[in-house]
Amino acid sequence: MTKSAVSQMPPGKQLLLFILIFIGVFTAFNILGIIAVGLIYGFGLIMDIAHLNFTNPQSIPALYILQIITTTLPIFLAPIIFAYWVVKDPQEYIKPSFRFPWVLFVVAFFVMLVSSPLIEVLSNVNQQLVLPKWLSGLERWMKESEESARRVTMAILKMNTLWDCIKNLILIGFLTAVAEEFMFRGGLQTIMARLTKNIHAAIWITAALFSAFHMEFYGFLPRLLLGALFGYFVAYSGSIWPAVWGHFLNNGTAVVATYLYQKKHIKLNPDATDVFSWWQYIFSLIIIIILLIVYKKVALGKERGPVLNGEELG
């Protein structure tokens, strides 16, 4: 299939192919990861990890291997396969170009810097979620899923040495940022833009899928906001890298703050949800809006909006 033929492929078909590719790659690499860890550490350790038992000192290195093979690699490879071998247009579906004003990295840095209060208030609102009684089973499953994810994260983020912190910066900070941005803001957001013909709808739909994908329901709203911010970084710059940078800053800051807190170098718990006041929430929202306007003007100029298939979307 030629690139011109691919460009005429209905976006619904593109979305279906993208999902099928991800499911196939995800399944294959999950089997591969379980076999690899089983052969290296024994299949008994696999069962311990499945039951969230991390008492075995080998469980943490096994978790790292599982994280890379069963999660990071599939998320990274699926959009690569789709962009290079299915639609044959990596520039459009991954957006790896560095042709954008580098000052956008600075603007993105300040966006992430001032986003903490807004993320906190959204997290607090999210934590108040109570479903109707007839959905009590779903709510119980959501809480159990949240607790499982929390315990896995705590195990990985238990850092005894500086090297542990550096490893997490590489895995959770950089590699995760690259993989997730390639998949969501590269592949999925592009498909959603073609499907909806509206860049803003595409950004927020993709952000919602990004947040839901993490299976941490009581963090849905703050992750939705982050996904939208990353989406606008890509839409206005035409490149994936400002979003990777913002994603890395968010994840990397959490890793470093957790390490410093564990080593008692700082007193503020990174998981605290009562750090800011209401006026800081409002200030955060206003500054983020202003910075996004600045980001757009720097990236695109004042006279044009993000472009899809040669047409301005505004």
UniProtKB/TrEMBL annotation:
Task: Tell me yes or no: is Lipoprotein among this UniProt entry's keywords.
Answer: no
Identify the keywords attached in UniProt to this record, alphabetized: Hydrolase, Membrane, Metalloprotease, Protease, Transmembrane, Transmembrane helix
Q: Residue limits of the CAAX prenyl protease 2/Lysostaphin resistance protein A-like domain?
A: 168-252
GO MF term list: metallopeptidase activity
Asked whether the UniProt record includes Membrane among its keywords, one would answer yes
Please give the start and end residues of each transmembrane region. Answer: 15-41, 62-87, 99-119, 161-179, 199-217, 224-244, 278-295
- Looking at the Swiss-Prot or TrEMBL record, what is one Pfam family this protein matches? Rce1-like
* InterPro entries membership: Rce1/LyrA-like_dom (IPR003675)
Question: PANTHER family, per this entry?
Answer: CAAX AMINO TERMINAL PROTEASE, CAAX AMINO TERMINAL PROTEASE FAMILY PROTEIN
Q: What name is this protein filed under?
A: CPBP family intramembrane metalloprotease
State the organism named in the record: Mucilaginibacter aquariorum
Q: What is the lineage of its organism?
A: Bacteria, Pseudomonadati, Bacteroidota, Sphingobacteriia, Sphingobacteriales
